[in-house]
Amino acid sequence: MSTAPLLQVNDLKKHFPIHGGFFGGVTAKVYAVDGISFDIAKGETLSLVGESGCGKSTVGKALLRLFPLTDGQVILGGTRIDDMPSSTLRPMRRRMQVVFQDPFSSLNPRMRVRDILAEPIRNFGLSNSSADLEARLVALMDKVRLPKDAINRWPHEFSGGQRQRIGIARALAGEPDLIICDEAVSALDVSVKAQIVNLLQDLQKELGLAMLFISHDLAIVEHMTHRVAVMYLGKIVEVAPRRSLFGAPKHPYTEALLSAVPQPTPGIQRQRVILKGDVPSPINPPKGCRFHTRCPYAFDRCRVEEPVLRPIADAMGEGHVSACHLHDRSAAENPLSGAKGAALLAVG
Amino acid sequence: MALLEVDALQTHFRTPDGINRAVDGVSFHVNAGETLAIVGESGCGKSVTAMSILRLIPEPPGKIAGAIRFNGKNLLEATDKEMRAIRGNEISMIFQEPMTSLNPVLTVGRQIGETLRLHQGLSAQAAEDRAVEMLNLVGIPEAKRRVREYPHQLSGGMRQRVMIAIALACNPKLLIADEPTTALDVTIQAQILDLMRDLKHRVGAAIVLITHDLGVVAEVAERVVVMYAGKKVEEAPVHALFNRPRHPYTQGLLGSVPKLGSSLTGEATRLAEIPGLVPSLKQKIPGCVFASRCPHATDLCTAIAPALEEKAPGHVAACHYALREGALAA
Amino acid sequence: MSTTTLPPGVNAAVPMQDIMPPVRARGGALGFLRRNPTIAIGGLLVLLMIFVAVFAPFLFTRDPTSLAPALRTREPSAQFWFGSDMLGRDIYSRVLYGARVSLTVGFAVAICASAIGLFIGLISGFIRVADSIIMRIMDGIMSIPSILLAIALMALTRGSVGNVILAITVAEVPRVARLVRGVVLSLREQPYVDAAVASGTRTPVIIIRHILPNTLAPMTVQATYICASAMITEAILSFIGAGTPPIIPSWGNIMAEGRALWQVKPYIVFFPALFLSITVLAVNLLGDGLRDALDPRMAKRL
Ligand SMILES: Nc1ncnc2c1ncn2[C@@H]1O[C@H](COP(=O)(O)OP(=O)(O)OP(=O)(O)O)[C@@H](O)[C@H]1O
Ligand SMILES: Nc1ncnc2c1ncn2[C@@H]1O[C@H](COP(=O)(O)OP(=O)(O)O)[C@@H](O)[C@H]1O
Ligand code: SF4
Ligand code: SF4
Ligand SMILES: [Mg+2]
Ligand SMILES: [Mg+2]
């Protein structure tokens, strides 16, 4: 089918065992990712947002098969890759590449830029002659707007932003269909961040890349993305197209998250939802709705029954789903009906 | 008279490959009860400025020059004993990383009580009572139980609340907060900023808030100092700065952060970027420090460093082309 | 620049003077040594000892093994620079030759223990199943003090320099293996290793290209400490007669022979002990200097 998504994730789970006791047995589990599903179309950017420790990076690493999954399916371009043996998986890896947060630890300090970029090209057998390899390397440097003569230098000779460009070039070397950006701009300084955001947007248009953009910076996410998935404690609580999510969030957690972001406009009057307390531990996630310990609207049902993702009728955009029992109530009783985003953000 | 006056502060460090001029001629003042924000990118000298005020710079390799007058007294001439009496008492500080600035082997109550016993000579019992009171003030639930806990038993947000409690325990006149929310999640950041705003009204201390987040500045500051490469390039009341930035660096900075809600108002789809990199502080720059990245730079800029001029009442900027009234000439 | 030359309406900032004298940035080997005085001093002393050991045949004054009963236990003098021992042998010459044994044992143990430890540590850090077994064995070996282990091993064999090296190596391997395993485990978590896996790099290549080169810096530092500790262990073994055979002059042997007389003729023990101390100190200084120079975290914090 031609409209099949590029990447499809069904009920993905990743639980990390905690070893303890004298014999080092498993004493508990971290429910880092606990059954999430989403898909990404060709050329589309899906953002994954949420607070620290909610499982965003774990999703990224699980998709990349950097560790075995606990459960669930990952289907890339129509092929299931979650249960593939690593030898068959290796050529498939070309289609899905990654850019990490820390520009310092994401490049091997003892490899020259040339060798860093040549590694994926050689691994995937993309060039058959050294002249071709050279041409590809030069083209990569050009794509990420680095000077060609920088290719023989070592990572420590570059600034954070330049290193991030090298990291992006490495991700592009395999000519992927999908790039996972795990907080790829979060560690950068404001002025450099804008440079890298612009570069990523340009590359996406130019190469028709799909992107999984993992970030906790909601303003950047809104600027970059087509759709957003909001995570809380290992679960997705809301997925929506950009305008629909920022204009009319339908989940109490998304509402709180949006209202918490400080806005660079002094003196604006906005509606604030300040959450009480901290994110609970993913070792013992709360029963029922995982957000009920902090949700300002929680009621009895929330403490016993877990809400599921379901389409929202009065959403601004199509394909807006959210997991909250409030959606069973009438619009008059639902504090999240209508378009509320503008009041939270104090725009328009 | 201002509560704190920093005058031509220079803090340099001796490093193996040259002198690092981390702060090079920065002047500003803080009035009693006021919130002043210092913004700038990492490495521009914000933290060094804060540490210099409290004389926490290791000397050597560092060296401080200029004047820092607190209530009219120059702290750079104070003895170590006088400084110890001021730190944590009249001026206190909150750091970015709450875990590393708390002592892991002392209970929270002991750490709050310590400063009180040191500076105000309270008895052990009185100090503990006051510690409980402080924890209540910063909104930590079950304060009676929490005073007996150790820092690792608290979450990041609670640790930062404890840091604030310690900082406020002696009713300081000035609180210096160096990136107090940078390590925290947005929802926790919102809690802490809310707390700081609330406490400001109740406690009445002046605050120097150091941050790189323009959103945080807009929410809490009254006046803003913008730093770039060890210099102050602009200073203005918060509304003037955001509505009418005069220095090209500030303009670039404001243009490069997307605003939440941009998809609703259909604003620019591309961020304004400041090209290039921050210059090395180990090189002496003869002209304007921003000339290497400034879209309006001319030969004049690379030759002559612009003086800080008052462009509008209370609004100063160091740029040859930022006109006194009216838009940028270029 | 004076204000009179400025265009109208332009205000120049008051120029800032530097508040400390300029630092002369020095590049090259000399600059490196200046910035790392411990490496310079330690390295110089180690080189000096190597020089002594290598050129002992040209520096000695009398045959270190020739007996001269008539010239027993002479005080240091122009004839016997460091005095003579109970059999009339020249202590100066014996100490020079002793440097050969000490340095040979020190360097050989450092190299062998590092190589074997590196191999074991890499396997342990990469193969989970092997890890628990290997590490229990290493813990077992480590629970015996290394000197006792070396003595026990020497008791099973004939005294020779080769066997001394072997015995000390066995005792030192677990320490290296542990270190390497720790480093490997933390390197495996590095994003660049994840990126390499994601770009289809095979595990053996990951180990050789991405892990191994980054273990070398901590390994080098550890190797210097092992070298120093091996020299001490060798001296102890020889001193208690469980090490290098008595006919080969080694610092431990010389001290052992001078032990009975040390209250009346302290110089017999003093000179080999002095050389041993200086060498061990030098190697440790070198190790500390390397650690500071190679550990980017500590360097950055300054
Ligand atoms: N290897 C591991 N072993 C045990 N627990 C782990 C492991 N990796 C992650 N976790 C846990 O899983 C949860 C999710 O972690 P993850 O790194 O995915 O968070 P995140 O959303 O990316 O957070 P951040 O914004 O801080 O990067 C956390 O509680 C974390 O402590
Ligand atoms: N103890 C020190 N020794 C040498 N250089 C230092 C020291 N502390 C800070 N610096 C340098 O001073 C400059 C400004 O640092 P800092 O004030 O921490 O920046 P920020 O604005 O991010 O807070 C940086 O170049 C930093 O490397
Ligand atoms: S289900 Fe209940 S607790 Fe969960 S988000 Fe909705 S209202 Fe809040
Ligand atoms: S003085 Fe010149 S270079 Fe400096 S900010 Fe103004 S226009 Fe730009
Ligand atoms: Mg993460
Ligand atoms: Mg700082």
UniProtKB/TrEMBL annotation, chain A:
It comes from Falsiroseomonas oleicola. The keyword Transport applies. It is found in: Cell membrane. Pfam families: ABC_tran, oligo_HPY. Residues 7-258 form the ABC transporter domain. Belongs to the ABC transporter superfamily. It is a peripheral membrane protein. Its main location: membrane. One of its GO terms (molecular function) is ATP binding. InterPro entries: AAA+_ATPase (IPR003593), ABC_transp_ATP-bind (IPR050319), ABC_transporter-like_ATP-bd (IPR003439), ABC_transporter-like_CS (IPR017871), Oligopep_ABC_C (IPR013563). Keywords: ATP-binding, Nucleotide-binding, Transport. This is ATP-binding cassette domain-containing protein. CDD domains: ABC_NikE_OppD_transporters (cd03257). The lineage of its organism: Bacteria, Pseudomonadati, Pseudomonadota, Alphaproteobacteria, Acetobacterales.
Automatic annotation (TrEMBL), chain B:
Its main location: membrane. It is found in: Cell inner membrane. This is ABC transporter ATP-binding protein. The keyword Membrane applies. NCBIfam families: oligo_HPY (TIGR01727). It is a peripheral membrane protein. GO terms for molecular function: ATP binding. It comes from the Bacteria. Keywords: ATP-binding, Cell membrane, Membrane, Nucleotide-binding, Transport. InterPro entries: AAA+_ATPase, ABC_Ni/Peptide_Import, ABC_transporter-like_ATP-bd, ABC_transporter-like_CS, Oligopep_ABC_C.
